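Incident log, structure service

09:12 report received: a user says their structure output differs between two submissions of the same chain.
09:20 pulled the input from the user's history:
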Amino acid sequence: MTSIARRPSTGKWIDRWSVSRIGKAQSCQRLIYFDSVMGFRSRFSTSSAIQGTLAHKGVLECYHAEGLRRSFAVRGFIEEATQEIEREQLAPVEEIDKLKGRIYSEGYIEWADRHGGPACDSMTKTILGIEREFDVTIDGERFTGIFDMVLYDKERNVFEIHELKTTSRKEALDLSSSYWRDLTYSTQPVVYAMALSGMISSGTSTLKTYFIHDDLLKRAEVEFVYHIIQTTKSKPGKKKPIRKRKAETEEEFAVREKENQETVDEWFQKTLKLYKEDHGRYLKHSFVLTKAEIDQRWDEILDVVDATNNSRQFPRNPGSCGDWGGCAFRKVCSGDESLETSERLKRKKEEDSECKSIF
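09:34 re-ran on a clean worker, output below:
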């Protein structure tokens, strides 16, 4: 990249920040430039991202918001989300990804019914929003994002910010692991706590807080609640190990191999049963950050924002090329592709990029 685009008239390269954008800026300045300033992204979503999106639909909107548990209800919510993804990427969603979305959702529901049930059935907690967008300006910077779920516990005068995480990392189920140490020190809780505070103090919150007395609002604490679903790389395979028999022809062995191969439906039923019965694949854990912790990390976030908006060349960080599931812009950085002609990239919607100039 020999030159960069013209700086926007606002004087800031990026006028709107999110947890994702902060992470990209911390990872690689060139990445945040291609992604958020020029407004390009990978054309296709990864399987893990699609499965996570579908699980959010089944768990949050179907179960926690509506209290629906039946398989056909989950299937309906996930089919709706699948159609949205297909319209966005102009390509079909793999059947295995759709089925894994159902498996994670239905398995979670089976587990959650034994650990508190859906949020809508709680006698002491009120749902303030599910998949609720926020758009707040704090310390002169605009931050946007989506709360998975926000509850208010009237008995404790506590706001609960709930997040659903789907991950293949086994350590996510171990509270003493680095996964949880990293999570409690991550950007997301800080940004979400500041956003919630900003929404409430501004008096223009889209969250349903009208029934909470002003005095309680001022004294309320914030708790972060994470729901973990461990994902699987499983896919249809052999029903059992088989070997070619001595007297068997190649054609006969091929027939037996075909008969030994699981169908998609056989694999689905087997894996769904596993996720409904093995409750060790789920975890719910909460933690609280002190005001001092939030303030300190907020200052660090503002430093990242300031450094990015004052960048002159947006230097590459070669050590992060493998992050984010493999950087979508690696071939652009190497000179093998260009932003405008790469078949693997697409422009974001106009409102999702900050600069429309081409370098």
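09:41 both user submissions now match this output. Likely a transient worker issue. Closing.
09:42 reviewer note: The first strand starts at residue 16 and ends at 17. The longest helix spans residues 71-89.
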